[in-house]
Amino acid sequence: MVETHSEKSGSATVAPSMVWDAWGVPAGHQPLSAQIRGLLTQVFGISGEPVARRDEGDVPLRPSVLTDADRDGLVDVVGAEHLSTADVDRLRHAGGKSTPDLLRRRETAPQDAPDAVVFPADHAEVLALLRYCAEHGIAVVPFGGGTSVVGGVDPVRGQFATVIALDLRRLDTLTEVDPVSGTATLGAGLTGPRAEELLGAHGLSLGHFPQSFEFASIGGFAATRSSGQASAGYGRFDDMVVRLAVATPQGSLDLGRAPASAAGPDLRELFVGSEGTLGIITSVTLRVHPVPDTTAYQAWSFPDFATGAAALRGLVQTGAAPTVLRLSDEAETGLNLARSGDVGGHPVSGCLAITTFEGTAAHVAARSAEAEALLTAAGGTALGEAPARQWAHGRFAAPYLRDALLDVGVLCETLETATSWANLANLKAKVTAALTDALGAQGTPALVMCHISHTYPSGASLYFTVVAKQLDDPIAQWRLAKTAVGDAIVAAGGTITHHHAVGADHRPWMAAEVGDLGVRVLRAVKRELDPAGVLNPGKLMP
Amino acid sequence: MVETHSEKSGSATVAPSMVWDAWGVPAGHQPLSAQIRGLLTQVFGISGEPVARRDEGDVPLRPSVLTDADRDGLVDVVGAEHLSTADVDRLRHAGGKSTPDLLRRRETAPQDAPDAVVFPADHAEVLALLRYCAEHGIAVVPFGGGTSVVGGVDPVRGQFATVIALDLRRLDTLTEVDPVSGTATLGAGLTGPRAEELLGAHGLSLGHFPQSFEFASIGGFAATRSSGQASAGYGRFDDMVVRLAVATPQGSLDLGRAPASAAGPDLRELFVGSEGTLGIITSVTLRVHPVPDTTAYQAWSFPDFATGAAALRGLVQTGAAPTVLRLSDEAETGLNLARSGDVGGHPVSGCLAITTFEGTAAHVAARSAEAEALLTAAGGTALGEAPARQWAHGRFAAPYLRDALLDVGVLCETLETATSWANLANLKAKVTAALTDALGAQGTPALVMCHISHTYPSGASLYFTVVAKQLDDPIAQWRLAKTAVGDAIVAAGGTITHHHAVGADHRPWMAAEVGDLGVRVLRAVKRELDPAGVLNPGKLMP
C-alpha cells in the first residue's frame, strides 16, 4: 500500500482518498452479480470476465515541473509537510470520476497530474496561496473529494506552466453551531459523513445525501450546486447555504448576513456554483435540522412514467412533498436499478416510486397520510416499505456498479438535466433518442434508463443511465454520444446540468445556457477577482 | 383634475398613478378615527386637525432640461404620444413614497423631477431607449408603481445633465401561461391587482401580497426582492422567479432555463434585487398556483413576544408553516395596529399572531391541524377567525394611515430588517433603543412597534413602525433617527433591509452588508453592462 498525504495526516478522522482508477474505496468494490453477468451476456454478448487493474505505483505520470522557487514560496505558506510532489498524491488529484476520466486512467501512456498538491490549514492559508499563485502565474485547481463527473478538477494549466491542486481536507472543523436558528458553520473540506458525524454530536443533521455523499466535500457541494436525494424535503444544497466565506486572489468575501435580504443582488448565488473559478469557498454556514425522530418509508407503483410524473407533480404543487421523492421509468424499474441488491433480477413492470418522510412523529404521520391520499388518487399503488428501504440501503452503491461494468467492457455513464413539468416528456424522449441514435450509429445499441429524483413546483430533474458495449476507443465512442445529447438537451429546452455542474465537459453549452451577455458578466466578475486568471482554468466559462 | 399620461392610455385596465404627495388613490384616503385622535392628544399633545394639501397643479417644478435633439431621439423609439414633459407626469415620477419623500413634497420650493417620462411599449423599445441614453449620456430611472420607500426612484442625474423616468406600465400583458408547470410570464409593468386579474382568468394566482400590492409592479417586485404577506406559504418574490428578461445598454439577457440548474452561478440572482442599476427587467416568468379552494383563518394570542417568536420558529422549523404567519409585539398588539378598524381602540394585552392556510380543502385541514397543535403546545391561545379576517381586510391600509398622521403633525415611518432566530431579540432591542434614543434626544419621545411578518427556518424579519411628534424640520429629525438605526442594525448583525431594498437611503450601509470586495464585484458587473453609468444613478452601489 502506497502511503499518501491523507493517511499521514494527524487530523482526527481522515477523509479517505478515493482509489486512483475507480470510485470510492476498495471495500466498496464488488464483482458483478450472476444476475447482471447473465444479462450482459444476453444483451451485449459480453462474458463478464473483468480485466485486471493496475497498481497505482505502476502508473507513469508526466514529471512535476514545479520550480524550487515556487516550492519554497508555497511551503512558506503551508509548511513543508503540507506540500507534496509525490506521484501517489499527484495521481490521486489527477482528475475526477466521470466515465471518460476512469477510462483515461486505464491508458498506459503517462498521465497528466498536478505538479504539486498543497494542503492549507485554514482560510488565511488559502488566501495566501491564491495571492502567491496569482503573483507567480501558477494555476490552482481547488480539490475537495475529487468526485466531479464533469472534469471539474482536471489539472488544466491554461496559459500557465505550472498547476497545483489545492486540497481542502484540512479545513475540516465544525466552527459554529446555532441550534436555535438551526444553522452550523462547516469547513469546506469536511466530507458528507464527517459533517454528519460532527453535527450528530449536537443532535443535528444536514440531510444532504447526493450519490457522492461518502467522499464529496462541503465546499464541493457549494461550488457545484449539488442536490441530494432528500432535496424534496431539505432542498438543494444551494437552498441550505445561509452564509459563505470565499478566498480570492483579491481578498476575502463573507456573504449572507441574514436568512433573507433585499440588500441588492444575492452575491452568495454568484459563488455557489462558481466551481472554483471565481474564488475558493472555505467555509459554509448551512441550514441544519434536528436528527429526525422518525423516518417512514413507502414505495409506490405507477402504471407508466407519465402517470407517475403527474402524481409527483401533484404532490409538489400541493405543497405536500415528502423528504425523498423519486420515480424510475419503465426501463430502470424493469432492471431493478433502484434496488441495488436486485439489479438485473426478476423484471418488474410499471414504474417504481420511492417516498420517505422524516421529522417528528406527528409531522411524519400528517405528511405521509396527505401524500398517500394524493398518490393513490393519482393512480399509484402502495408497495409497502420494503422496496423503499432497499433503495435507501443501496443508494450510494451505483458508482461501484459502474466500475464493475467498465471492468468487463461495458460502457456505463450517467447524465442529468431538468426542465418544466410541461416539457418533461419531450425532453426525456429527445435525450433518450440522442443517446440511442448516437450509440446505435456506432454499432453499439444502448440501454437508456431514467429517473426523476429532484422535484420542484415548476418542474423536475431527469437523471439518465446509459449502458452499451464498449468499442475499442470507448472515450471517443462516448464523446460522440455526449455531444449529441448535450445538443439535444439545449435544443429541447433543458438545462445542460441539474446538479453535476459544468466543469470542463459542459462548457460547450454554457453560452446557450446563459447567453453571450451572461458569459460576459461571468468573465467581468472573474476579471475583478482573479485578474491573473489562475483559478481553475478551463472550467465553467466558455 | 389634471389629465395625465396614464389616464390617456388606451390599454384595457390602466394602472392608476398614485397621487403626487401621498400614498395611493384619493378613494383610499380617510380621516383619522376619533380613537386615534384621542390617543394622539393624550400621548403627543397633538390636536389632530389636518393641514390642507396642495393641488398638484400648483406645485412648482424645476424646468425640464431635455434638449430638442434628445426629445427627437427618444420619440423616435417610443412615438411622440409616449413621451411626456408635462409637469403633471414629471411630478408623478418625482420620487417614491417614503416619509421623507412625502415630507419633501410638502415643501414649497421648486421640486426635482425627471426631465421627461417615456412609456416604452415592449422589451425592444426598452432596449433601444437604453442604447440611446447610454450613447447620449442621459440618466435613466426605471419606474414601475413608484412605491419605493427607500429613494429607489429618485430622479438622480449623477454625472449627467438630463434624467428621464422610464415608466414600464405599457409592458402589461400576460404573455404565457403554463398551467401544468404552474408558471406564467408577466410584463414588468403589471400591477399586483392586474396580474392577479389576468391570472385569475386562468384559475391561477401569484399570491404575492406586499403592502404595496395595489400599486407596485411585477418588475419592481423583482428588482427590489419584494416579500409579500403570504411569504410563509408562497415564498418571497425572488423564490417565485423562474425566468426573467433583462434589457441593458449592452443587450438582452434571458436567464433561467430550468426550475433548478447547476450550470454555474445563478445569474438571475444578480438581476433580482439589482434595482435598475444593472439593467431593466422587462418580463418575469413566475411560479403560480391554482386559486385556492379554501382559506382558513386563525388568530392566536401569546403571553409575550419571546414566546410567540419561539412558537413561529417551531412551526417553520418543523416544516409546518401556514400561508400567512405574523406576530405583533406587545406595543403593536396593544394599539391594535394589526387590525385597521380598531387602531388605537381598546388596548389588548399579550402578542397577537395571525395565521392563514390556503389550498385544497384536504391540504388546509391537514396543515391547520398540525399548526394548531404546535402553536398550542408552544403556549398560544387560539382567538378564532375574527382578528385574522380583520387583519386581512385592512392589510393594505397602513400607508393611508401614515398619510393621515403626517397631515396632523405626527412623524410616522417604517423600517425593516432580518436576522437569525438566535439574534432576533437582541436586534429588536437594539433597533428599538436606537429609535427611541435618537428621537428622544431631540425632545420627541417615540412609540416603537414591531412585528414578524416573514419567517425562515434560520430566522425572521422584524418590521418596525415608529411614531413621534414632528419637529419643525421633520426630514432632519428623521434623518438622525434613520442614521442611528442603520448603524444599530449593522452593529447588531442584521441586514440593512429585508424587503424594502437599498435605493438611495440604504447605500451608506451597503459596504457593511457585502464587504468592499462585494461592492467591487457589483461595480464590475455594472461596468460590463452599463459602461456609461446611465442606469439609475445614486442607487444601490455605494
From TrEMBL, chains A, B:
<dbReference type="InterPro" id="IPR036318">
    <property type="entry name" value="FAD-bd_PCMH-like_sf"/>
</dbReference>
<feature type="domain" description="FAD-binding PCMH-type">
    <location>
        <begin position="110"/>
        <end position="291"/>
    </location>
</feature>
<dbReference type="InterPro" id="IPR004113">
    <property type="entry name" value="FAD-bd_oxidored_4_C"/>
</dbReference>
<dbReference type="InterPro" id="IPR016169">
    <property type="entry name" value="FAD-bd_PCMH_sub2"/>
</dbReference>
<dbReference type="GO" id="GO:0016491">
    <property type="term" value="F:oxidoreductase activity"/>
</dbReference>
<protein>
    <submittedName>
        <fullName>FAD-binding oxidoreductase</fullName>
    </submittedName>
</protein>
<dbReference type="GO" id="GO:0008610">
    <property type="term" value="P:lipid biosynthetic process"/>
</dbReference>
<keyword id="KW-0560">Oxidoreductase</keyword>
<keyword id="KW-0285">Flavoprotein</keyword>
<feature type="binding site">
    <location>
        <position position="402"/>
    </location>
    <ligand>
        <name>substrate</name>
    </ligand>
</feature>
<keyword id="KW-0274">FAD</keyword>
<feature type="active site" description="Proton donor/acceptor">
    <location>
        <position position="463"/>
    </location>
</feature>
<feature type="site" description="Important for enzyme activity">
    <location>
        <position position="326"/>
    </location>
</feature>
<dbReference type="InterPro" id="IPR016164">
    <property type="entry name" value="FAD-linked_Oxase-like_C"/>
</dbReference>
<dbReference type="Pfam" id="PF01565">
    <property type="entry name" value="FAD_binding_4"/>
</dbReference>
<dbReference type="GO" id="GO:0008609">
    <property type="term" value="F:alkylglycerone-phosphate synthase activity"/>
</dbReference>
<feature type="region of interest" description="Disordered">
    <location>
        <begin position="90"/>
        <end position="110"/>
    </location>
</feature>
<feature type="binding site">
    <location>
        <begin position="142"/>
        <end position="148"/>
    </location>
    <ligand>
        <name>FAD</name>
    </ligand>
</feature>
<dbReference type="InterPro" id="IPR016167">
    <property type="entry name" value="FAD-bd_PCMH_sub1"/>
</dbReference>
<feature type="binding site">
    <location>
        <begin position="224"/>
        <end position="227"/>
    </location>
    <ligand>
        <name>FAD</name>
    </ligand>
</feature>
<dbReference type="InterPro" id="IPR016166">
    <property type="entry name" value="FAD-bd_PCMH"/>
</dbReference>
<dbReference type="Pfam" id="PF02913">
    <property type="entry name" value="FAD-oxidase_C"/>
</dbReference>
<feature type="binding site">
    <location>
        <begin position="275"/>
        <end position="281"/>
    </location>
    <ligand>
        <name>FAD</name>
    </ligand>
</feature>
<dbReference type="InterPro" id="IPR025650">
    <property type="entry name" value="Alkyl-DHAP_Synthase"/>
</dbReference>
<dbReference type="GO" id="GO:0071949">
    <property type="term" value="F:FAD binding"/>
</dbReference>
<dbReference type="InterPro" id="IPR016171">
    <property type="entry name" value="Vanillyl_alc_oxidase_C-sub2"/>
</dbReference>
<dbReference type="InterPro" id="IPR006094">
    <property type="entry name" value="Oxid_FAD_bind_N"/>
</dbReference>
<comment type="similarity">
    <text>Belongs to the FAD-binding oxidoreductase/transferase type 4 family.</text>
</comment>
